[in-house]
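Researcher: Good morning. I'm working through a list of sequences from a screen, and I'd like to move beyond sequence-only analysis. For each chain I'm collecting a predicted structure so we can compare shapes side by side. This is the next one on the list. No need for commentary yet; just the structure.
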Amino acid sequence: MFSKVGAESEIVIIDDVPVNLRLLDSCLRASGLNNIRTFSDSTEGLAWLQANPWDLLLLDLYMPVLDGFEILERLKQRSRIESPIIIVTALNDPKNRRKGLELGANDFISKPIDLPEVLLRVRSCLELAQTTRLLRDANGDLERKVERRTAQLEAGYQSIIKSLGRAASYRDHDTGSHIRRIGDSAAMLAKACGMPRQWCELIRMAAPMHDVGEIGIEEAILQKPGPLTAQEREVMQEHPRIGYELLHDNNGSPLTELAAEIALAHHERWDGSGYPNRLQGEAIPLSGRIVAICDVYDALRMPRPYKQVWSVERSREYLCEQAGRHFDPQLVDIFCGLLDAVEELDVTARRAQ
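Model: Good morning. C-alpha cells for this chain:
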C-alpha cells in the first residue's frame, strides 16, 4: 500500500490507552510501515518529537498531564506539510474538531476508528509530505545550478569588461591602476550615497569601462599633444556613444548594462552643457554622475603630457567650483568627505606614475 519511501517514514503515535496504541501500531505495520514509535506518556512523546525528525504523528486529544491540544501548541512551529498531525480521538464534537485544526492538526479521525480510513488518511498525509520534500529538494538543486551558471556567466562578463578596459587604457596610455581606482572610488562614493551593496559592487566592476569607446577614436586625435580642432572635438565626443554600442545588449547582464549606461553618461554635465545628450541634473543616471566625479578627480591627480599632478587641495577646490555646473553638488559634498580614503587607493601605484 505504501511506497518504499513511505514505508521508511518515521511515524509516532501518542495515546494514553495501551489498547489503542497496539491497535494502531499493528494496523500500520501490517500495511508495510516499519518505523513506528508509540508513547502512552504524552510528556515523553512530546520530548521525543522535539528532539528528533519525524514524518507523521497520530495524536489522541484526551490525555492526562499534557493533552493533545497542549502538544499541538508546543509543535506549532513545525512544517505542517512535512510533519503532519492526524488527531485520533473520541472528542469529536465540532468545537474540539475546530480547535484541533486551528492549533495545527492536518486531519481528524474519530473513535471508534475505521482501520481502512486510518490507512487512507495516513497515506494521503505521507504522500503530500514526501512530494513536498521532493519538490523542495528539486528546487534547491535547480537554484544551486542557476547560481553556478550565473556565477560562470558573471565571471565571463567580468573577464570581458577587464579586457576591454585594459584595451581602452592602452590606447591613451592610462595605466591599469587608474581604471582600477575609478572603480574603487566609484564604489566608495556609491556606498556613501546609501546604494545597496550589490549595486556598489556592480559599479566597482563597471566604472573602469567608462572610456571604452575611445577604442573607436583614431589615435591621431587621442594622442594629439595640443588642443583639438572643432572637428576633432566632435569626433572625440562620439566615444560615449561608441562605448554604449559596444557594451549594450538587450540580453546582457546587469554588469554590462551598467557599464553601457556609464559609458554613455559620464560626460554629461549637471547644468546640461555636457555630451552626448545634454542631459541635465538628475536626468543624468546616478552611475554617470558618480563616475564623472571620480574620473575627473583621478585625472587631476595624475601627470599628463600637458599638465603636472594637481595637489589634493587644488583638486578638491576644482570639484567644489564645478559643483552645480559640471557635477552633482550633493555628490561633490559626499566625495570631498571621502578624500582621505580615496587617496589611500593604490597610493604606491599613483606615485610611480
